[in-house]
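Hi R.,

Here's the chain you asked about this morning:
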Amino acid sequence: MIINHKLAELEKMGQSIRVGLIGAGQMGRGMISQIAAMNGMNVVATADIRTEEAIKAYQNAGIDNNNIIVTEELEAAERAIENGDVVVTPHFPLVLALSSVDVIVDATGIPNLGAEIAWKSILAKKHIVMLNVETDVTVGPLLHNMAKAANVVYTGAAGDEPAAIMELYHFAQSVGFEVLVAGKGKNNPLNLHANPDTARKQAELENMNPKVLASFQDGTKTMIEMTAVANATGFLPDIPGMHGPESTVKQLTEILRLKEEGGILNRYHVVEYINGIAPGVFVIVTSDQPEVHRELKYLKMGSGPNYVLYRPYHLTSLETPISVAKAYLAHEESIVPYHGLVAETVAIAKKDLQPGDSLDGLGGFTAYGQIMTATEAKESNALPIGLTDSSLVMTKPVKQGEPITFDAVEQTKDLTIWQLRNLMER
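And here is the predicted structure, written out as tokens:
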């Protein structure tokens, strides 16, 4: 499917894919401006508790103030969209209820909120595109199955690293290569003790939320992203936390090969991250066909027997419209947990935790995420990082560097993501 041709056809017929966006932070703002430059697609409604951020996002995209309608009423919102205006609201359920919205995009990055948005989108029979990998690695298999039953699409977003990796993975498999390793570069040195305070100065310089930046620095985000790839491919982490070596693109096949071949891996068909090639993503492939090896050498792909397919960029929310179009036009996903839950990102104590301490979620002061196989996570009763937030209170001490277990925490509030997780496990 040539997406730009299909969108141009919609535009020519006076039609468009009508997008409802939840979250007008950095990702949401970029997406609104990108879609404003496209044919056949419009962000007709945006929800954010900070309505001023959503208004600013539309203004930055060239929308006149007179055409931005702030409302909490369904009828007024429907009428505004029918008149060609865009809607801003502090209440995301309003966006889900709009008959004039075809596809929902979750750009919140909050696991529990993402779970509620996805679940209610599916119940409303709307396609849902997740710029929220945190939710996907926690309850994605259930949401994927629910969406299939409802005949709508649940998908991760193009432009996020997991979907960018899957583009290479699907291409490689389609032309007959065997994929041995799937991975990504990490933007910053791993600092397991990063927290909002240590990240604050850099976050201010980069106009980021300090907690979000800390979740990148402490490795949690990388672990979550590679868990999504594991669940989409069936590949596993070679060791808990992966190896995370330093490498250039040219060195990848030398480092990411089996130990008996001079590399660091115990096995192939693994997910991995690399320091030194960010913001790129890659797969390492091979073939059992001698003629294919001769052709790859002729094409300057290396001496073999393994070769790197490398993409040096990913454009985050600027590529998300691709997933919106694929869902609406072709009923296709960009990335989903095709293999169910084969890997898990679990919560590891960032400091000694005592009974009565509250957890504070991704990028906080209390825990970081570590990828491991789902079997290892289950055997150790480890708590998924996506379930951690301030509603969880410690009931047992856990030492720094040890997994936080289900029996060491108590819920003070019944969250949607916990309900869905329990349903998925049953």
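One quick note: The radius of gyration is 22 Å.

Cheers,
M.
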